Amino acid sequence: MLELKDITLYFHKGSINEVRALNNISLTINDGDFITVIGSNGAGKSTLLNTLAGTHTPQTGLVTLDGKDITRWPEYKRARHMGRVFQDPLKGTCSTLSIEQNMALARRRGKRRGLSRGVTSEDRKIFAKNVKQIGLGLETRLGDSIGLLSGGQRQALTLLMATMVRPDILLLDEHTAALDPKTANQTLILTEHLVTSQQLTTLMVTHNMNQAIKLGNRLIMLHQGEIILDICGETKQKLSVNDLLAQFYAVKGEEFSSDKMLLT
Amino acid sequence: MSLFALLGALEQGLVYGIMVLGVYLTFRILDFPDLTVDGSLPLGAGVSAVCITHGMHPVASLVMAMGAGFLAGAVTGILNTKLRILHLLASILTMTALYSINIRVMSGPNVSLLGVDTVIDPLIRAGVPGYWASPVLFAGVVLVVIMALIWFLYTEIGQTLLATGDNLQMITSQGVDTHKVIIFGVGLSNALVALSGALIAQNQGAADVNMGVGTIVAGLASVIVGETVFGAGSVPRAIVAAIVGSVIYRVAIALALGLKIGSFAFTPSDLNLITALLVVVALTAPKIKARLKRC
Questions:
Q1: What is the DSSP string of A112-158?
Q2: Integer angstrom CA distances of residue B131 from A59, B141, B172, B253
Q3: Which of A160, B66, B153, B251 supports an S-S bond with B191, CB 3.0-4.6 Å?
Q4: Is A17 near chain B, with CB under 8 Å?
Q5: What is the four-CA torsion angle of A89, A91, A94, A98, rounded to 10 degrees?
């Protein structure tokens, strides 16, 4: 169980560019939750995710994992418990290394690394089996450099790598936003498959309301660094895009102007 | 060019080649331009020379030199990661500090090794002619270092080094502390540079505080020349290319120094200018070539 308690986070605190990105946020992520996070640009979606991942340290508040205070843990230390997929498909893999080398790095996430082989024959067997399930025909190309793959292929691999060692939470930061619609859809199907088959606790940031409604058991809407909606269970299943917009007006009582959120 | 001159250039290319491997490790693998080498080369030379004159076995003095080089590199790594100083500046700071440290180590600007046993003497006593002894010995050392380095880069830790230079965000999310990797990587690189310096000192019979000037530029030139001539498709290939580049570079320098146009001739002090120009040309040539092709 991951918990955020009274988290406030400023960027450029004390300067004229000061921005309050998260405003006194509290959130409990239960084991097995698949939470989708929506909100307009600058609402704090990515900041929320990065605060969980340890990229940003909040000025006030606590981040706890199974009751342990991890607020001051650096990113690499938290990574032992977290799988991450980024918006930029290039960020999740090393272009100069081969597919199997990348996967081997992921398979040792959170484990002690020593002077044994970086990629073993046992690794290769497992990787071939794993890669087969994403159905891109990569199982015969394990020795190829990642730089030769397309963005969609890389994103699929990153997903696979993030779940190779079972994470306590899977963090997805608009991981389909940079892909073409068809590839984005395939990536989403893979996401759903991996999350449900392993029953992973997941937090997925998205710009797409339909996605946010369709996937997961819980939906959170952020606005100006605050959680303005937190819906789960049956209520969420019955949700439509119009409901969401109506809810948004009701809570904030202000005009939705030209915003990317409308372009679902 | 005579056989002696060629052997001399080969010897220099091999012994400086170990330094080039260190530069390759930081510059290409870690993506960390490291100027510490200008200070860690004479550091290795000085430590080795002082150890030998105090009665230590020449081979053991090499280990001491590598240890000192590792520490120097680690300092640069710590300045960069823990104190968040830009990598280039961090390495310049260490390099500058090393100038004073090297003079302290040697209790003066140089230490002579004339009349004491070095790693080359056993070979000469075994009957190997003097002009063959150093090239053969250095070739052996280079071979061992190449094999060790290739082996290391394919271990789990070695792979994190490659990944750190490629994609910091990726390897951080795989649970690796990149600070540790950078400190260790820059340390390892400078251990190799110091080993190179120690062997150079033992070969030429003296360690000198100024022998490191221009090391980084020579190292870069060798790496780039090697990649251009030999290619850098894979890690083992790039490592061999670094040595090939180092030998080509030293042969080219020897040829340039032997060149006479009328009354004009290059002197050894022109070396740094030639090398700097060579690096500029090597770095810009691909871009100029691409632009010419487009027209």
A1: ---SSBSS-HHHHHHHHHHHHTTTSSGGG-TTSBGGGS-HHHHHHHH
A2: 67, 17, 50, 19
A3: B66
A4: no
A5: -20
**B112 beta partners:** B206
* Residue among A74, A105, A116 minimizing CB distance to B171: A105
Is residue B1 within 8 A of residue B7, CB to CB? The reply is: no
Lowest model confidence (mean pLDDT) among A75-79, A116-120, B263-267: B263-267
Helix, strand, coil share (%) of chain B residues, nearest 5: 80, 5, 20
Q: Does B172 contact A114 at a Cβ distance shorter than 8 Å?
A: no
Predicted confidence at residue A260, as pLDDT, reads: 46
Q: Which of B154, B170, B171 is the best residue to mutate to test the A interface, defined by the most A CB atoms within 10 Å of its own CB?
A: B170
Which of A76, A97, A114 has the CB atom closest to B157's CB atom? A114
Strand-pairing partners, residue A232, are A218
The structure tokens listed for B174 are 């795989």
CA A135 to chain centre: 22
List the Cα angle B82/B86/B91 in 5-degree steps. 90
Q: Which helix (H) or strand (E) holds A239?
A: none
- The whole-angstrom separation of Cα A71 and Cα A62 is 6
Q: Which of residues 88-117 of A touch B (CB under 8 A)?
A: 90-97, 101-102, 104-106, 108-111, 113-117
- What's the mean pLDDT when you consider all of chain A? 91
Give A108's contacts in chain B (Cβ within 8 Å).
156, 174-175
Chain A residues whose CB is inside 8 A of the B173 CB are 53, 75, 79, 82-84, 92, 162
DSSP letters spanning B100-138:
HHHHHHHTSSEEE-TTS--TTHHHHHTT--HHHHHHHHH
What number of other Cβ atoms are within 10 A of residue B52's Cβ?
25
DSSP track, B19-82: HHHHHHIIIIII----TTHHHHHHHHHHHHHHHHHTT--HHHHHHHHHHHHHHHHHHHHHHHHT
Residue whose structure tokens are 């540790």: B180
The count of other CB atoms within 10 Å of the CB of residue A13 is 11
Residue B86, min C-alpha distance to chain A (Å): 20
pTM: 0.92
Given the DSSP bridges, would you call strands A202-205 and A169-173 parallel, antiparallel or unpaired? parallel
Q: Could you report the per-residue pLDDT of A157-191, keeping only the tens digit for each? A: 999 999 999 999 999 999 999 999 999 999 999 99
Chain A residue with the nearest C-alpha to that of B162: A97
Nearest to A229 by CA among A16, A6, A27: A27
Give ∠ CA B248-B184-B62 in degrees, rounded to 5: 60
CB contact under 8 A, B174 and A91: no
- Phi first, then psi: what are they for A13, rounded to 5°? -60, 135
